[in-house]
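question for whoever is on the cluster today: can someone run the full assembly for these? two chains, 814 residues total. i dont have access anymore since they changed the login thing
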Amino acid sequence: MDILKSLLKKSDSKILLIVLDGIGDLPLKNGKTPLESAKTPNLDFLAKKSALGLHIPVDYGITPGSGPGHLGIFGYDPLKINIGRGVLEALGVGIELKETDVAIRGNFATVKYENGIPIVVDRRAGRIPTEENKRLINYLSSHISKIEDAQVILQSGREHRFVVVFRFPYKVSSEVETINDTDPQTIWKPPLKPEGKGEIAEKVSRIAETFSQKVAELLKNEPKANYALLRGFSVRPDLETFEEKFGLKACCIATYPMYKGLASLVGMKIINFEGETIKDEIETLKREWQNFDFFFLHIKKTDSAGEDGNFELKTKIIEEFDRFLPEILALNPSVLCITGDHSTPCILKAHSWHSVPVLIYSPYVLGGTSERFTEREALKGELGIFYAYKLMPLLLAHAGKLKKYGA
Amino acid sequence: MDILKSLLKKSDSKILLIVLDGIGDLPLKNGKTPLESAKTPNLDFLAKKSALGLHIPVDYGITPGSGPGHLGIFGYDPLKINIGRGVLEALGVGIELKETDVAIRGNFATVKYENGIPIVVDRRAGRIPTEENKRLINYLSSHISKIEDAQVILQSGREHRFVVVFRFPYKVSSEVETINDTDPQTIWKPPLKPEGKGEIAEKVSRIAETFSQKVAELLKNEPKANYALLRGFSVRPDLETFEEKFGLKACCIATYPMYKGLASLVGMKIINFEGETIKDEIETLKREWQNFDFFFLHIKKTDSAGEDGNFELKTKIIEEFDRFLPEILALNPSVLCITGDHSTPCILKAHSWHSVPVLIYSPYVLGGTSERFTEREALKGELGIFYAYKLMPLLLAHAGKLKKYGA
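^ ran it for u. tokens below:
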């Protein structure tokens, strides 16, 4: 949306975007959703004088992962941007990716050898405990630090999962995304040889092959995790930054690596802080309030509760958030937006395609349409149902950061 | 949306799409629409716990014919797909078109000859009775069966209308759609010579010219229908099938040739059955329930009543449909969708551009927004107002047939 960029204007206004991860839900108890069940006097008060609506995270019927979900509310059309699997996994374990990096998802696996050829017998190495995984990654890290001109960076994930990053002394193109997974996707087959199209893809393939051989050699006496399967070769997408796209000096206040990673992809400054409660996040917000003009504050626990199907917990977290609202409003944001990146209905225990309530609080709203911040009350609101990537222009407008278009 | 295709996953769920043709309407009696006037206890009950909304068949202000109307709800953007007039007319009279066919609309017309040149004096041959038409088509069929390498297939329509198909021994390109109509669109002029661009178009033009001359010769003594004007030269559009696009094994239960034809264009299996009542269709649905995972059930009479401006009849048909709802629900469809292909308001006695109520019944809806399945109650629903071609992704999602997009 180049028109938007041509309309940007500076102002002192501050925008606060609070993302309650996976907030949208479906009725369970007494026909109510968690937002409807929660006692939220402060949100209720706010909803009555705010602009409400719902956003479609990606498109009708499409259930977003965290990547596309956040890209949408950050103002990037998630159907037009591909974040590779390796990159997302690397962000999830907290690796700060550079444009010189190739990020790859690794799985520890079990192979047996027939005539010297490895045959996959368990693609997940019996889901070894995370502590096992950490021991193995430490051991591998101390023995593999460089292959050709690539620095090798290893990081444990959960159970059998890890991330490997090849860091080169030069920028790497997305050509490496043509490299196939080495995971044969089925047992009783040998791992596949990595192969890609183009000079750098061939080089990365060769390095990946060497890496696999080194791992196999180093882990040959392990009972379960004696091999590494590689998937999702990818590079950091080349996104316009928040500053370039919206003229905003933006920061991210989040507790989970994945969301910090996504924010850093669009150039937000990641604020480091102690603790991981909502209170810790709000304290951090207060401390940084003078330093930025856009704040992305991410609350993870609503999503986790939804993923666990824990209706009561999700309701409780909403109530906890509600209690902090007066402190947040005391900062006097020019525009306060509360929404989610997607729905995580407790009855599905997973992300879903359902549209997500949005609340925009600013002096420049109609308001008076909705009694509460809930899925069904949001349907009555002035914003209607709109694509998530249209949210940012709305926030900029309400913050007085957009000029008139045309005369 | 190629992304959708990449997200398809198999599941045992079954989707039932019921199209009440032309269901949308405008208030007439007591300010109520037929849906609002009808007594529909079963639909009312369903509406309360379903997702409601309205679809825009093609685009704002655009009144669709049956072709675009159905393409939309079948998930194809009707603005991007052209179904030629000849093809639609052929589908309407029940000709099963192949990719080797050129389909053309014919009008019997009256000409008089001046210096041997035909001059059109009535473009519709006084709208001869359909029985007359059938007699003439039988006669022509017995005398014209082949021209060059094209088999000639003739089929009567109503009054002065008929369809002619040239069936070749090879696939015919859409190049033939450059051929002009021979109808001069006004009287006191000679018919136009058919001409098109490209080798096959020239050949088809030549065959069409020969056909016209043969018809003129064979009918020269007819008092009214002594000539044939040809319009809408077209070939079957090359559409992705429902199976390719959505991974669905789909069937069509309909009574009118046009709708069976449209369903066959997207590769649905057409179920043949005796009778033409709603009851006959429901019985067929029950019989076929185990054989498919998508069912398109088309009910025509709501549209016919609208076209006749018969408010009472339209209301009665809605009530008749309502009585079958318990039987339909007893099949336990994973997703039941009830909608129309367009509106046919009684006061217009014609199709219209108005958005059309949609109901999606599944365990994964918010529900509780609307009291009834009516135009105005649908406005309160969670689906909002959306383009018809977004309906299929929504149905797939509710049926658990779509994976998450991105991680």
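summary bc i know u wont read the tokens: Residues 2-81+239-398 of chain B form a domain with the Alkaline Phosphatase, subunit A fold (CATH 3.40.720.10). The mean pLDDT of chain B is 96.
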